[in-house]
Amino acid sequence: MSFPTIHNITFDSTGDPYDLGLFWSAVFGRPLADDDKPGDPEAVLRDPAGGPTLLFIRVPEGKSVKNRVHLDLRPHGRTRDEEVERLISLGARLVADHRRPDGGGWALMADPEGNEFCVERGELG
């Protein structure tokens, strides 16, 4: 018996998908596809390790409710707090702070289009 694999994780964008792709490109430190250009109806961010592609597509309607599926990010080479600050400097915003004094918890963030994601504690705290 064989099972499916995740090919794309798709992000909706009411603006330019290329711009949203640039934000996530900076988050993950990898470039958009060579043929992506501003104004295109979609942009693609591939995982060099073969994981799912992040696909950014233009949609006519804005986000109206909380995401039902979201990414949980675990920082590498920096603390969770440092990662949250880095993401804010890239254009994300802190939606809700669930970090606890004991080091547990997470930070709920939103990308420039309002797509929510969490930042968990990494190996450095």
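Second entry:
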Amino acid sequence: MKIVYLLFFILITGCMTGSTVYEPEGPYKVTKVLDGDTLDVNNGERIRLIGINTPEKNECYYKEATEELKKLTEGKVILLEIDNADKDKYGRLLRVVYVKGINVNSHMIEKGFARVFDEFPSLDYNSLKQLEKIAKEKNLGLWNC
């Protein structure tokens, strides 16, 4: 199973124009989803999805964003990709998360569960901003609050 995930990840990242191919981290099993952009994995690490920001508790669309990340990842096997930083100030690993070939970070923005985290951009900032623009134009998710 590890080899399948590794080969898929190399294929996907190798096809991206101008991107560096990194060896994926994992596979890991997601043990807990804390909110729409933070999760725990079975090696004890806490992962913060880099480049995105979801609503906080008591904000519009918090519950929906959290539930979407749970639906996508909780109890499932994921791969991680390092981006332009390793950890945030809280010690969480900053990563792009993949589950069954889906880039979860992009998915959360594309479907309106997250916005681009402009204060701490990822290497995919321009692509994420384009997805955000489309979600905003369609009034998806948090853009309809």
